[in-house]
Design a protein that fits this description.
This protein is mainly beta. It has one helix and nine strands; from the N terminus they run E-H-E-E-E-E-E-E-E-E. The C terminus is likely disordered.
């Protein structure tokens, strides 16, 4: 399966991924607050990763090797990767989608816009 994500997101905002071993990976894509149904993923609700204290975020773009536990930084925000998966279309990877938890309480009320 080929990977087109880097080409597709080449003009997106830069993102940095810090691995637990100290290595750094760079990529491009977009971080946005995860919005589904109004009651989904709200603070104080249970999610597959446990009880949520704040909303979840999602990264969509090109960021090779992202795994749960990595730290993603973009635009002054810092996030912990909870889940990461490559999304294929027609036999090619078109993006990485990572579910994130924002680090730091100062941003708990930010709506991501």
């Amino acid at each position: 399966m080929g990977d087109s994500a880097e080409r597709i997101y080449r003009n997106g905002p830069a993102a940095t991924l810090r691995k637990p071993d100290g290595s750094v990976v760079t990529g491009r894509g977009l971080v946005a607050r995860l919005k589904t149904q109004a009651s989904d993923y709200a603070p104080g609700q249970r999610h597959e990763t446990g009880w949520m204290d704040s909303p979840l975020w999602v990264f969509t773009g090109s960021l090779p090797g992202a795994e749960p536990g990595d730290q993603l930084e973009q635009g002054g925000g810092c996030y912990r990767v909870l889940k990461a998966e490559k999304l294929p279309l027609g036999g090619r990877v078109v993006c990485l989608r990572a579910v994130l938890e924002r680090s730091g309480e100062e941003d708990a009320g930010d709506d991501g816009t």
